What does this fold into?
Amino acid sequence: MELPLDHFRLIGVSPSATSEEILRAFQLRLDKTPDEGFTYEVLTQRSELLRLTADLLTDPESRREYENLLLNGVSGLEFSSNREVAGLILLWESGSPKEAFKITRKALQPPQTPALGSSREADLTLLAALTARDSAIQEQQIRSYSNASDFLHEGIQLLQRMGKLGEIRKDLEEDLASLLPYRILDLLSRDLNDQESHKKGLNMLENLIVKRGGLEGNNKSEYGNYLNQKEFEAFFQQIKPYLTVQEQIDLFLELQKRGSLEAGFLAFLSLTAIGFSRRKPEKLFEARRILKKLNLSGLDSMPLIGCLDLLLADIDQASARFSSSSDEKLRDWLHNYPGNKLEAICIFCKNWLENDVLVGFRDIESKEVDLDSWFEDREIQEFIETLEKKSNKITIKSNIQNQQIKKEFSTKITDDVDSRLDNIDERRLPWPGGIKQEYEKLDIQENKFNEEILKNKPIEFYKYLIEKIAELKFGFGEFLDDKEITSRSPYLIYLYAFLILFIFGFGIGFLRNNFKKSIQDATLEDKIFIAVDKNQKVSEKDIVQEIKKKPTNELNSINEKPISINSFEVKKLTSPSPSLKEIRNLINLWLLSKSKYLAGKSEINLSKIVTSGLIDRTIEERQNDIKKGIYKEINSQISRIDLESQTSSRIAVLVELDYLERIMKNSGEFVNETSLTPLKVKYILGFSNKSWKLVDFVSGL
It folds into this structure.
């Protein structure tokens, strides 16, 4: 057998080495015998080969003849069959593990396969394992991780076939597993023209993530021993820029189906990126749908959805999303922004797109975002116009359906009920669940209620059902027209039909049980949700009259004696659709309690009608005033209140206040005064745990 080895490499010296250097290297090689488990026979042959080489190179005549052979192009050394394994060991020791592994692997295959159980078989098998490992190490040093993995894989297969060295094989398997992230990086970082390698890397990446239990690493696997969550996240951030935006969308959507919430959020970002960069606004709808369904702990999704609303030219909805954010610092920044609120939202959206969305994609160039060019794009404008037309078309059709169904049912109820229905404003209520259009689940802006809606509860609830059925009927008709959906999901048709019949039957039963009571109580005022504590009971009418007599002195003044907040029991507002009067009373109670607390005259105990976040903000404001040695005297009176929007879970009202605020030192010294007439404020109420609570407010609209 000829091996790619010369005498100088065999003994480990340079061609210019002196005889003394050669003898010293010879002695070191004899003393440093491999201790990995080779047989005594092959180690003896190794020592003999080293001795022969040392003799040749230290003899001047023999060395001169050998050097002439090298100059004439002779390369490699011939070894007899009984010294082949020893020669391969010396080739491995000379720093050529890859060549030694290839020759050793060939020697273990037919027809050269050694006798089973022989010392030659044992030595060759051990040498194959050692050279496979060192070959992989060499490839890693030059960052050729895929080749390194190939050497380890071949070594493992060879040991499995030979059925030997189980411990060493286990070590190779662990090395191969730990090399997987680097191998994926190697494959994905190659030129995109190498489609085979890129596809292979993608499959390996997905398998790795799935085996770990998603991006969160919920499963315990062999990878947990060397690739913890922190290390994996660092690896994944390095991998992402080598994936195209569509590859990331496909990967994250697949991982989300398997239960990974973080993958769902990354899918949302990727869809937003492709929607904005490629001018595909329909992708923004898909991104918004995914984000709304996510339930990531600690994620404040409102401003992110607000950014998508802004890009779809729904300014009012975007503003409402930002106002509903749970991030107090963001709300304070918006409130204190020197320009108008729309400008602030645009700045937030621009920074979000630049820093969080349009980064980490192979085929998206990260650059400064220009929102003007987005809105000036002709395709974007046409899309938004089409969307608005569809929304208006839905509204018109729903109103027509409402009129038709109302006419059909009007003959079945008394003239008194019929006259009541005729006197109520026709309002389109939103259809729950959306309508399948060309773009999936379009968000239709919810219409406003006026303050009389649902005041006469049984009758108006019945009307509410009529309108709901009308919209369901229209939506169901549109749904049936979509042949793709009906062909894929026939059971959805039965589901919608069942819902329509259920709502209709429930409405008829509710009307029958409550009709008499509604006629008797139709002229009564709704009961106010605050009443005099213990023995005394005061009707809403009495309190409203008292407010009209002395609105400034008794509700909004700190200097004069106000109505004692402690004399009232705060009750939850549980009406499904509260009147403007009830909402006004709730806000008045909040203003009165807040002013007394900031003046240091009482505690704030409104947890039944105000969220803890809003109460905590007020407490923090008071604590800051205490540190400064001041208190505030606030007089505020509602001069106007209008309903902006109302759904089953959210109400927004626009309020105008006559507002006066004085800042006083604890010593009584006057510091500053602010007077605003009117001060415009938007108050937002949310429905949770079967009652309405004040969630937030935005001043200076």
Summary: Confidence is low (pLDDT under 50) at residues 395-489, 515-567. The CA atoms of residues 92 and 100 lie 6 Å apart.
